[in-house]
Specification:
It contains five helices and no strands. It is an all-alpha fold. The chain has helices at residues 3-28, 34-61, 70-76, 88-115, 119-142.
């Protein structure tokens, strides 16, 4: 299995954990910003669902087989499930931290892919990073 496929599979596992954390936040957010955050978390997990599909399909395109069990994702993931129901703004902070970490990893993988003459993987990941950079800007604006 190539290094890129392995890295994409690890990223796939992390996106699954991120997805579930976002679902938790969407279901359990409370407070004065409920409507905005409830909507934000839904928008984010819908996007993560799309990223999950694209990552798995990219792994298949490159000749690999994506991990496909929850047990497998949890064993591989660098992200951890949020077992708490934190306060609303703590949820926002945790989402921002996760997105920053994912962006860093995606940029590293994109660089490796570009070095290996794999522009499809690099462009896919760079598109997610650009989207997350804009979302992070918006999240920072909620903290001002």
């Amino acid at each position: 299995m190539s290094k890129t496929i392995q890295e994409l599979d690890l990223l796939l596992a992390d996106f699954h954990v991120f997805y579930q954390n976002l679902r938790n936040y969407h279901w359990n957010v409370t407070g004065p910003q409920f409507f905005q955050l409830h909507e934000l978390f839904e928008k984010l997990y819908d996007g993560v669902s799309e990223h999950i599909d694209n990552l798995a399909e990219r792994i298949l395109t490159l000749g690999g087989e994506p991990t496909h069990t929850l047990k497998g994702y949890l064993a591989m993931a660098t992200l951890k499930e949020d077992e708490e129901t934190p306060a609303a703004m703590t949820m926002v902070d945790r989402v921002a931290e996760t997105m920053k970490a994912l962006n860093q990893r995606m940029l590293e993988i994109a660089g490796q892919a570009a070095d290996q003459r794999d522009p499809g993987t690099a462009m896919m990941l760079e598109d997610i990073v650009a989207d997350y950079e804009k979302t992070l800007w918006m999240i920072r604006a909620t903290r001002s």
